[in-house]
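Support reply, case 0932

Customer input (verbatim):
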Amino acid sequence: MKRIFQLSLTIFFLLLASPLFAQENDFIKDYIERLENSRKYLILVAESVPENKYDFKASEESMTFAENLMHIGWAMDWHSQTLLGGRKARDWNTDTTLKVNDKTKKEMIEVINKTFYETIKLLSEFDATNFNDRLDYLGLNRTKRQIFLLLADHITHHRAQMLVYMRINGLKPPRYVLYQ
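Our regenerated output:
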């Protein structure tokens, strides 16, 4: 009788948990679709700006168009590979992979594209059972699910700055791509 009760209890919990896991996996699937659309739109924005405008910044304390673009890549790498993937963070002082440095427009776009693909690969393999794991996020206690959301917000924030830079320079931004 005890075994039947234990088996029944186990089946009950599995049936209860199954829809929860499916929802988390659906979240990842939806997130990846959104991130891919965000990649396409950001690349379109970056390609639409002439290279001689990549050094433009709206104010002295602002980042340039190019710095905003590469900052998206840096933060995307940190949020995904380091916070979610567990890789040691890049050293801002020595690692130039995701910095402007002497990169051409074409090279920056290639780096951003590659960073998006690496992020999408890592996130598509993310174990949804780890969503509630907590970690230090610049002094704040956040779940890994929140890191997914923070990453999307950060990309949107800096891309919006780039769109404003385009308008200030008399350039028409590409039509907004829905669902990102």
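We compared this against your earlier run and they match. Two observations from our side: The chain has four helices and two strands. Strands lie at 134-137, 140-143. Please reopen the case if you see a mismatch on your end.
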